[in-house]
Design a protein that fits this description.
With 107 residues, this protein is mostly helical. 61% of the residues lie in helices and 11% in strands.
């Protein structure tokens, strides 16, 4: 994943409504959600939702498909996993992570 793609993805998620939309689409899984379902579940105005979905699509984190008269939005798990992989690629410089050590603690 290119650094510019990482920055674009993180910038898209750095807004509360977009983060909520993306999380809702992740929960929905491959079936995705319609804008109407997102409006209802997130209690956000349709015009605002449209803007946020456009930004998420621009980042590559969300895809859109037409199914008859409906638009279906889906989280791009491939892009999400690439972003997570980029962020953790050199985790702890090959050493055991502090989080793993803390989990093993029997305190």
């Amino acid at each position: 994943m290119e650094e510019n793609d990482v920055v674009r993805s993180l910038a898209a998620l750095a807004q509360p409504v977009r983060l909520q939309v993306f999380r809702a689409l992740v929960v929905a899984g491959p079936g995705g959600l319609t804008p109407g379902a997102l409006v209802e579940s997130l209690n956000v105005a349709a015009t605002s939702l449209s803007f946020h979905l456009k930004e998420l699509m621009h980042s590559g984190l969300v895809s859109q498909e037409r199914n008859g008269r409906n638009l279906i939005y889906r989280a791009s798990f491939q892009q999400m996993n690439a972003l997570l992989g980029y962020l953790t690629e050199n985790c702890c410089q090959g050493e055991q992570c502090l989080a793993a050590v803390e989990q093993d603690c029997s305190c």
